[in-house]
Each structure stands twice: as C-alpha cells, then as structure tokens.
C-alpha cells in the first residue's frame, strides 16, 4: 500500500572531495556495480562521518536491495544529522513500514508532515500506517488529503478502496474508482473496480442462492424456484471465472 519511492534527502555536496566520492558511488550504481558503489559510499562515511550524504546514499542502496534494517540504520544517522528534514524522516518511515513497524513509521511520517504539510506522499503513507494499526477513520482522513493535494494519485485511491472494503462499504469504493476514472486513466484502478464489482456481484448472488434454497426447503416441489436456483448457481460460477480471467489478462 505504501508509496515506497524514496525522496531526495540531501543537497549536492559543496566539498570537492566529498562531491567526488559521492559521484563515484553514484556512477558505480548507475553501471550496476553494487560492490563498487557500496565501497564508495563507505569511503564517504569514513572520510566525512558527520555529513549526511554517505549515510543517505548507502541507505538508499541497501533499500534498493531490500535490506530494510540496514537501510533504516543508515537513515537513523541521517535523521540525527538532519532532524527536521522531512525527506529524511519520510525515507526512514518507509523502511519502518517495510519492517512492519507501523507505529514507528507513522511517527516519522507525522513528524515530517509538521515540516511539509502539503506533501501528498507523506499523507498517503501516514494513512497506510493508520489503516495497518486498525484506525480506518485516521487512514481515510490522510488518504483523502493526499488525493486533494494530488488528484491523479492512483495509489491513494487504491488505498482508500482498501479502507472502504474493510469497513464493508463497497459502494463507496466503487464510487471512488468511477470518480477517478472519469478524469484519469489507470489500469490498477480499473482492475480494482472490476474486483469490487465481482465481490459485490458475488455477494448478491450468494444471497439470492440462499433465499432460493430456503424457499426450496419449505417448498421442495416448486420447480420454478429450483430452476431459478440452477440459473443463479451457474451465474455465480460464470462470474467467478470471468473475473479471474479478466484479472489475469489485465
């Protein structure tokens, strides 16, 4: 659910030697030489331990490899050096979300929002942490704020649909998707809309089948009801197959 893209957290280095070391790591990373990039960023840290660039770039490297704990440790050091930088707090919050520590992640996103209250990514990710901690109202508040700030934010719409579905409000989720698709194109949102329609249709068919079965239990010789139950069961099976095939092809 999280928008896990990291944000640029440091300004270009002013010190010439520092700039050269950082550039060497970046070039190695662009060439796909992770070992050389790792060595370069560690060299930055050894030469300039009180500068954020080495810690931050090393953290981004570990994050790209899925090494969330190592990345978090690097971002801890960056936060210590730049405690009011919202991008640094955001990046550490993303790592903590990956680690399933949603309370800590939420604290980072909330702290970052005090410095960047109009950042849609912060609102989106804070909304996710609220949802993961069982607070749908808090989640909806921040996710809707993210969507107001960035109306084409598909990830926020998808997250809001998850919140709505968890609250058994499929109609609201369907309306969100339709409203979004009225202005923007998004295959993930359209796939989510299909899934929501399939869930709702399946629920209605289940209820209809249950009603028909109850009628047959009371009136076992009612041929029209038995025939209708057969049609309902066929429709339910066809709906499930069609939805699965459409999702696989989307």
Outline the structure in words.
This protein has 250 residues and is mainly α. Among the domains are: 1-83, Tetratricopeptide repeat domain (Serine Threonine Protein Phosphatase 5, Tetratricopeptide repeat), CATH 1.25.40; 196-250. Helix content is 78%, strand content 0%. The chain is built from 12 helices and no strands. Helix 1 runs parallel beside helix 3 (52-64). The longest helix has 32 residues, at 187-218.
Rg, Å, rounded: 25 Å
The CATH topology of the domain at 1-83: Serine Threonine Protein Phosphatase 5, Tetratricopeptide repeat
Distinct helical segment count: 12
CATH class of the domain at 1-83: Mainly Alpha
Overall morphology: elongated
What pattern of helices and strands is seen along the backbone? HHHHHHHHHHHH
Secondary structure tally: strands: 0
First-last Cα distance: 19 Å
């Amino acid at each position: 659910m999280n928008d896990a893209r990291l944000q640029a957290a440091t300004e270009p280095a002013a010190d010439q030697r520092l700039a050269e070391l950082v550039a060497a790591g970046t070039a190695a990373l662009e060439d796909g030489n992770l070992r050389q990039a790792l060595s370069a960023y560690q060299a930055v840290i050894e030469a300039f331990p009180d500068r954020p660039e080495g810690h931050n770039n090393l953290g981004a490297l570990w994050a790209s490899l899925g090494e969330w704990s190592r990345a978090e440790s690097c971002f801890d050091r960056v936060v210590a050096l730049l405690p009011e930088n919202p991008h640094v707090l955001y990046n550490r919050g993303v790592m903590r979300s990956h680690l399933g520590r949603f309370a800590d992640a939420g604290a980072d996103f909330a702290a970052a929002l005090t410095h960047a209250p109009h950042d849609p990514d912060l609102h989106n990710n804070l909304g996710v942490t609220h949802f993961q901690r069982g607070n749908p109202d808090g989640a909806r508040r921040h996710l809707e704020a993210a969507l107001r700030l960035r109306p084409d934010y598909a990830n926020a719409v998808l997250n809001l649909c998850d919140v709505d579905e968890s609250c058994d409000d499929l109609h609201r989720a369907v309306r969100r998707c339709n409203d979004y698709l009225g202005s923007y194109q998004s295959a993930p949102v359209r796939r989510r809309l299909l899934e929501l329609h399939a869930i709702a249709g399946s629920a209605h068919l289940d209820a209809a089948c249950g009603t028909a079965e109850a009628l047959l239990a009371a009136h076992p010789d009612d041929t029209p009801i038995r025939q209708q139950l057969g049609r309902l069961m066929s429709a339910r099976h066809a709906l499930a197959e069609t939805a699965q095939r459409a999702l696989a092809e989307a």
